[in-house]
Design goal:
It is a single chain. The chain contains 7 helices and 4 strands; from the N terminus they run H-H-H-H-H-E-H-E-E-H-E. With 162 residues, the chain is an alpha+beta fold.
Length: 162
């Protein structure tokens, strides 16, 4: 049931709730037959949050656990998804603002942080750009983009710093 609830939370753009449910599933039922599947969905939730590194780690864990249990479908899905984790690949971010002054950029990043978004300030050509997330493709950024727009932010998907 925890696995299905997490999948529903991901579909509803609620990755934090999905992650909490998946973590609880693994804590309450260690060694469960759905461990590998739970890692796959953990990766998807981390992707939705914009944390590509954590997603890649979870995809790897899904492959390892799936192989140990002989779950070829989970292994195949996670292995294909993890191909986007190759080092040095182009990553995408969501840009929420660009300021000439660093203080204004830091203020926006702090406001985003208080709202639960991990923001960073990136100096670029005399501007201080406020960015959120790391994504392997522009399409994987859309969920977080919708959530930020829903909170009133102007957002653009940009090729991110590697």
């Amino acid at each position: 049931a925890w696995l299905r609830l997490a999948q529903m939370d991901i579909a509803l753009d609620e990755p934090e709730r999905a992650l909490a449910g998946l973590q609880r599933l693994r804590a309450d039922y260690p060694g469960s037959p759905v461990d590998a599947e739970s890692w796959f969905w953990t990766a998807r939730a981390q992707e939705q949050r914009g944390d590509l590194d954590a997603a890649c780690d979870a995809f790897t864990r899904a492959v390892v656990d799936g192989r140990a249990r002989g779950e070829s479908q989970v292994v195949e899905r996670a292995a294909v998804a993890s191909m986007e984790c190759a080092p040095g690949g182009l990553r995408f971010s969501l840009q929420v603002g660009a300021f000439s002054g660093r203080a204004a950029a830091r203020d926006l990043a702090a406001t985003l942080g208080e709202a639960g978004f991990e923001a960073r300030v990136v100096p670029d050509g005399g501007l201080h750009k406020v960015r959120v997330g790391w994504f392997s493709t522009p399409d994987t950024a859309r969920s977080l983009e919708r959530r930020l727009r829903g909170r009133g932010y102007t957002v653009a998907v940009v090729a991110g710093e590697s």
